[in-house]
Amino acid sequence: MQNQWDDQEVDGLEHDLLAMRVYSSQLLGRETGLVLHGGGNTSVKSTEVNYFGESEELLYVKGSGWDLDTIERPGFAPVKMDTLLKLAELETLTDVDMVRLQRAAMTDPNAPNPSVEAILHAIIPYTFVDHTHADAVVALSNTEEGEARIKALYGNRVLIIPYIMPGFILARAIFERSRNVNWQELDAIILLNHGVFTFADTAKDSYDRMIDIVSVAEDYLYDTTNLQFCDSSSISLSKIVSGIDKGDIASTALPLMDIAKARKAVSDLKGLPMLVMTSRSTSVNQFARLENCAELISRGPLTPDHVIRTKPTGVFLQEPVTAVIDSFARNYQQYFDHNSSDDVQCLDLAPRWGIIPKVGSVAFGRSLKDVKIIADIIDHTLQAILIAEELGGWMPISEADIFDMEYWELEQAKLKKGSASLEFQGKIALVTGAASGIGRACVDELLAKGAVVAALDNSPTLEGLFTTPSVISICCDVTDAIDLADAVEETVAVFGGLDLMVSNAGYFPNGDSIETLKEESWDKSLSLNLTSHKNLLTSAIPFLKQGIDPAIVIIGSKNVPAPGPGAAAYSVAKAGLTQLCRVAAMELGEFGIRVNVVHPNAVFDTAVWTERVLKSRAEQYGLSVQAYKTNNLLKQEVSSKDVASLVCTVLGDSFKMTTGAQVPIDGGNDRVI
Ligand code: ZN
Fold first, then answer.
1. For residue 561, what pLDDT is reported?
2. Secondary structure class of 243 (helix, strand, coil)
3. Given 196, 611, 636, 665, which is the most exposed site by the fewest CB atoms within 10 A?
4. Are 462 and 434 in contact (CB under 8 A)?
5. CA distances from 560 to 313, 578, 606, 610 (A)
6. Start and end residues for every CATH 3.40.50.720 domain found in the chain
7. What is the mean pLDDT of residues 597-607?
8. From ligand 1's centre to the CA of 25, what distance in Å?
9. How far is the CA of 569 from the centre of ligand 1 (A)?
């Protein structure tokens, strides 16, 4: 592991203890082999003069809700040292009381909740304390001979603590052990199956010790197994593990329908829509080819705190996937029944990740952030398992210990608080004609309601239009059926399925009379305004059948109920499209897929309405452009945003009992009424 310390970055800050604390915490946090997403914690002890002129010793310890890689000064909670040391002497204390008493001992009521490992930091008699869940050390520890190997490797320079659940009892155990410890002789404390503490009077020394302790473990693993951890962004695991043919490691196609079915089954168990992230990195692919990988993923997590996000085990997604997920749910219920006591509330039965045999891994989460965290944790876990297997066998903590962590009272308390989510949180949408007008407004509205969106358009302006990771922009010519099918598959590959679809791409030809209408203009209108929508339905329906409350909105036109002269190619295509939608509603009702048409009129902030078209249409009706724009009963101009808002309402729960309907959005039109 590279030591990233750079004296120049902290030049002149040496006496600002908290600044030094922030600097080295971020160095630790950026190293994914040390901590992942909120894991680990750090502290610094500082003597300060309070408001009354009294000197008091404080522990600035990482607050909950902060990640080490991005932590800043406000991320550290100042807690009175004397209270923490008194707490360490108590015989017993519940973790809920510990959290409350730690919070009451803070000198800044606006600071975040101190880490649950704060007492442990207070006990260690050094200014700087660093705690990580280093992959290499934990992987070494999670093996048959883990403790013996660690003893042999580090000798007396580390204090080894057998696995104890984090929280008060761990602090208490270390407090007891540390009474007869000569701290001068120690470089670190290794908590078996959990992580490492290092400490020193300067930030640099404590950081250096952490890198050194971890490097010793990494070197040992490499020398013994020829394997090493790699960042998940690179190819992961530099070597091919034994028993796997290098020739097998090739890009394997994702079984998209199985992924969509798995997402549906997992979402049903969770009771909420989930997103999927797949990985086919080299290490994950190697893992998925192991003979015993189904059994290996049933043994337990890399470090106990991962269980909150990953559940104790993964699911082995072989055919038929829905039966396999049902079986996971039954096993989880059994695990709960076997380990639980009276007043504990069972969590949902849905898996959070799985292995697709010979292909890779899948992670399930409520949001892109959740699912990325789980995917990262799984990537590191699978590397650790591969290495531990080469060392003689992967052996994480016991089922009872895993259960205690998963059902820790502090975690249960968080559950009871619950959390509100947006209407389309976890839902996957696809919008065509997304680069402008109604399509673009629909993407924005779907995002605002929490969906992730595949935005399709063939306009070059699509690129760079949506900068959030919640949107994938797919350059696609909707009149090309293969292009469309690829775009639908890409959506499923990236997000895991398809729930909501806005078939919007359209085109308004010149206002020619039938007498002068050119055949190519007629053909183009039918191709774009009608056939492309049919092709989209054909490609999307198999996936929508696996969707969560799936719904389709097709953008029609006022021209359907109230055609105008000079728009034959457009009106005929849109009328056909409406009929297509009515048939689709009939065919898809039994699968729970709703199909409705929205008929906008006179939406002028769209690409269809060029100045020229606008002027020509106004003339057809003998109106000025301005009068034409507000030529409706409400005398209001209808915007793309208005249409998008209606589209999302029709896609949403308010319309859950409506299919095959046509809803106008035209400011009121006497010909339609
Ligand atoms: Zn920890």
1. 95
2. coil
3. 611
4. yes
5. 54, 8, 19, 21
6. 428-665
7. 89
8. 14
9. 67
Strands 188-191 and 195-200, sheet pairing: antiparallel
Class of domain 7-225: alpha beta
When the pLDDT of each residue in the chain is averaged and rounded to a whole number, the result is: 92
Domain 428-665: what homologous superfamily?
NAD(P)-binding Rossmann-like Domain (3.40.50.720)
How far does residue 197's CA lie from ligand 1's centre (Å)? 9
Distance 23 CA to ligand 1 centre (A): 20
How confident is the model at residue 245, as a pLDDT? Answer: 56
pLDDT the model gives residue 236: 45
Alpha carbon of 43 to ligand 1 centroid (Å): 13
Residue 188 alpha carbon to ligand 1 centre in Å? 14
One-character DSSP codes across 284-341: HHHHHT-TTHHHHTTS--SSGGGHHHH-S--EE-PSSHHHHHHHHHHHHHHHHHHH--
79-116 pLDDT, tens digit each: 999 999 999 999 999 999 999 999 999 999 999 999 99
CA–CA distances in Å: residue 579 to residues 541, 583, 661: 17, 6, 11
For residue 72, give the nearest of 123, 112, 132 by alpha carbon.
112
Q: What is the average per-residue pLDDT within 466-481? A: 96
* CA 323 – ligand 1 centroid, Å: 36
pLDDT of residue 179: 84
Of 456, 573, 596, the closest CA to residue 517 belongs to 573
pLDDT for residue 137 is more than 50: yes
More confident residue, 414 or 63: 63
What are the distances in angstroms from CA 561 to CA 235, 569, 598? 57, 15, 12
Q: How far is the CA of 400 from the centre of ligand 1 (A)?
A: 18
Give me the pLDDT at residue 608, please: 67
Cα of 454 from ligand 1 centre, angstroms: 38
The answer on pLDDT for 35 being more than 60 is: yes
In order, the DSSP letters of 30-82 are: H-TTT--TT--EEEEEEEEE-TTS-EEEEEEEEBTT--GGG--GGGEEEEEHH
**CATH architecture observed for domain 246-417:** 3-Layer(aba) Sandwich (3.40)
Contact status, residue 441 vs residue 640, Cβ threshold 8 Å: yes
What's the gap in Å between 194 CA and the centre of ligand 1?
Answer: 6
Expressed in angstroms and rounded, the spacing between residue 14 Cα and the centre of ligand 1 is 27
Give mean pLDDT, residues 36-59: 93
Average pLDDT over residues 21-30: 96
Q: How many CB atoms lie within 10 A of CB 117?
A: 23
372-376 mean pLDDT: 93
Q: 183-231 pLDDT, tens per residue? A: 999 999 999 999 999 999 999 999 999 999 999 999 999 898 887 777 6
Q: Which amino acid is at 267?
A: S
The H-or-E segment that residue 486 falls in is helix 481-495
**Span(s) in the chain for CATH 3.40.225.10:** 7-225, 246-417
Note the pLDDT of residue 233. 42
